[in-house]
Amino acid sequence: MLNKISKRVYIMLHNHDTDRPVLGLIIGDKYSLVVDAGNSPKHAREFLQEVGVMKIPPLKYLILTHWHWDHVFGLADMNLTSISNKLTQIELRKMKEYMWDDYSLERRVAEGKEIEFCSENIKKEMTNDFRVNFQTSVTDICFATSLELDLGGVVCVFEKVAGSHSEDSTIIYVQDEKVMFLGDCISEDYYSGPLSYDFKKFKSMIEKISKYDTDIYLNGHREPENNTEFWKVINMIDTIGNFVGDDLDENICLEKYKMIYKVEPSEEISYYIKSFICGNKKRL
Fold first, then answer.
1. CB under 8 Å to 172, separation ≥6 — which residues?
2. Is the Cβ–Cβ distance between 104 and 110 less than 8 Å?
3. With the C-alpha atoms ordered 231, 24, 34, 120, is the resulting torsion angle positive or negative?
4. What is the pLDDT of residues 148-180, one digit of tens each?
5. Which are the contacts of 156, defined by CB distance < 8 A and separation ≥ 6?
6. For the chain, what is the mean pLDDT?
7. CA torsion 239→245→249→251, rounded to 10°?
């Protein structure tokens, strides 16, 4: 069952069991657009089955928020005109050279080319027998930094915003509906060592997101958030990033926090302090 977000926007909710992200449906008067392709052919087909019972203009386009496996493995089964930014396409072309059976996954984890979290969830989502012959796909249309698409009665804006999580991160803003698909752009860097935030990348990304008059934000692995909920979290992360600055010592930073605010940092605040310090170290 798809959840209605606004008159023209529906989503299939995320599922943490196998790291399935939110999939989106944007309905125009002429055509309909899908946001992200799912983490497997099965995920894609389940989404298409739900859409198939709806009386809407035909599905024509699909836009990817970024290249990570859980957002792209269902691309071929969606069988739509697919769109991404150029950086996403570059990564998708690299993925086409990979094999996805257990042995290949485990070898890439050992070589540092894959992370254990992704390997484990790929195995949960798809059997090894299926993955022996599985091959990923590339998109049909690429853009450099931004693109607008008129579906008839509704315009969608795609903009590459980058961020710590992935350099190719793209937002999808649905004009008139004031709804934004974020993919995973506000998340940390999961792929290179300890989880981390790069404050400069975070600031640049937020500046791009803030240009849009948005009521509902749709994160790839979280529940929908209204404007107040979203910016409360973002402003908190931004405040901590400013506080950390260029510091490299977690203990010193935590002590400084206690001296300034006269309170022990919460578990959440400590986590973000550590994440920004890890980001600083990665830049060295």
1. 24, 26, 35, 63, 65, 156, 157, 158, 180, 181
2. no
3. positive
4. 999 999 999 999 999 999 999 999 999 999 999
5. 26, 33, 63, 148, 149, 150, 172, 173, 174, 175
6. 97
7. -30
Give phi and psi for 64, each to the nearest 5.
Answer: -95, 140
* Average pLDDT of span 182-208: 96
The encoded tokens of residue 35 equal: 């946001």
Q: Give residue 1's pLDDT band: very low, low, confident or very high (50, 70, 90).
A: confident
Q: Which residue reads 């254990």 in tokens?
A: 116
- Output the pTM of the full model: 0.96
Residue 277, CA atoms < 13 Å, CB-side half-sphere: 15
Chain-centroid distance, C-alpha 7: 23
Tokens 């050279």 sit at which residue? 97
Laid out side by side, the sheet with 81-85 consists of: 3-4, 9-12, 23-27, 32-35, 59-63, 81-85, 141-143
Taking the C-alpha atoms of residue 199 and residue 252, their distance in angstroms, rounded to an integer, is: 18
Asked whether 59 and 32 are in contact (CB, 8 A), the reply is yes
Structure token pair of residue 256: 């400084």
